[in-house]
Structure formats: C-alpha cells, structure tokens
Design brief:
about 0% strand; single chain; about 50 residues; mainly alpha; 2 helices
Length: about 50
Amino acid sequence: MLFYILVGIAIILIILVLTLVSISKGYAYKHTIDPLPEEDLDNRNQIVNE
C-alpha cells in the first residue's frame, strides 16, 4: 500500500516539475513583429499626405 502512495507522489511531482518548466519557457519566449514592407509604407505616406 505504501508503495502505491509513493509512486503516486512521484508521478505528481514529475508532472509539477514539467508544468513549471513549460510555463517558464513560455514566459521566456521572445515575441517579434515583422517589419512592414517598404511598398506599404510608401503608399500609406502618400495617402496621409494627400
């Protein structure tokens, strides 16, 4: 009976560690934004200036 309790606690601890590692990696991810193409910038400047 004690064996099953220890196995259960070990599984829970492994899942907890894996969850914390994946959350940590998610927060460390660096999000980037692609720059606008030059054509779109030129067209927008012309529209604004008119």
